[in-house]
Design goal:
This protein is mainly β. The protein contains one helix and 15 strands. The strands form three sheets. Strands 4, 5, 7, 8, 9, 10 and 14 form a seven-stranded antiparallel beta sheet that branches. Strands 1, 2, 3, 6, 13 and 15 form a six-stranded antiparallel beta sheet that branches. A hairpin with a 6-residue loop joins β1 and β2. 32% of the residues are buried.
Length: 243
């Protein structure tokens, strides 16, 4: 582990740099300027955000550590009067997977889907939710009594509440914006001999639902700085790494 720590320390002042040696036991990429965001509803295609190369001289296993800075923004707003319930629902999520080529590992999944990589397999446990937030705001208000004069409904009863009154809708809004760094270790066994390209992919999912024109939901997600560290290891044979 000392080799990995030393390489990461040197990478701190470098943008999108990759280290790998022939038959190397470690490989690292650190990207200090990566920024990718999305605020459109639906799921994005898979996007390559980090990559490195490692060469194995014998049948080995890999542990792949991915660290990412992520940011989520959600905002919900509702306006209600007369006891009408209004709802705003905003969700933002960031999923990550690691894809590796030139391997015959029996436990790798397919790196398919929109933006997928042909000939690559995904390290276990597959797709990981790095960051997600759902913000649900529901309100049912009577409204604010603005004015009550005359016989507005013409029923012969002046200043009747609430029929002769003007009711203004009450409003409620909630905004959350957070940034954090997350890490997850992926594993792929029986990687095989040769040179292997490692690609970290991410996709962003946005959901925005509002009950009516009196409600509003907005969501956004961002992937910032990140790093991937690959280490050649030997797992205990006969032990299933999948759950």
């Amino acid at each position: 582990m000392r080799s990995v720590v030393a390489v990461i320390f040197l990478a701190a002042a470098t943008c999108a740099s990759t280290w790998a040696q022939p038959a190397a036991k470690h490989a690292v990429q650190v990207n200090n300027l990566m920024t990718w965001d999305r605020d459109l509803p639906g799921a994005s295609s898979w996007i390559n955000i980090l990559s490195t190369v490692i060469k194995t001289s014998s049948q080995k296993d890999l542990i792949l550590g991915v660290s990412l800075e992520t940011s989520l923004f959600t905002e919900t707003f509702v306006s209600s009067k007369g006891g009408t319930q209004e709802t705003a629902d905003a969700t933002a999520g960031i999923e990550v997977r690691v894809c590796i080529d030139n391997t015959t590992s029996p436990n790798g999944g397919a790196c398919d889907g929109a933006g997928g990589l042909a000939g690559y397999v995904s390290a276990q446990p597959g797709v990981v939710m790095f960051d997600k937030r759902r913000q649900l705001l529901t309100a049912k208000f009577a409204g604010i009594l603005s004015a009550c004069t005359g016989d507005r409904d013409g029923d012969g009863i002046p200043n009747e509440v609430p029929d002769d009154c003007i009711i203004t809708a009450e409003e409620l809004s909630l905004l959350l914006d957070t940034t954090a760094a997350h890490h997850f270790n992926f594993v792929l066994d029986d990687i095989g001999v040769g040179t292997h390209n490692v690609k970290v992919q991410a996709r962003i999912s946005i959901t925005e639902n509002a009950s009516s024109a009196n409600a509003r939901a907005d969501a956004k997600a961002l992937v910032g700085k990140g790093s991937v560290a690959v280490e050649e290891i030997r797992l205990v044979k006969g032990v299933d790494i999948t759950l």
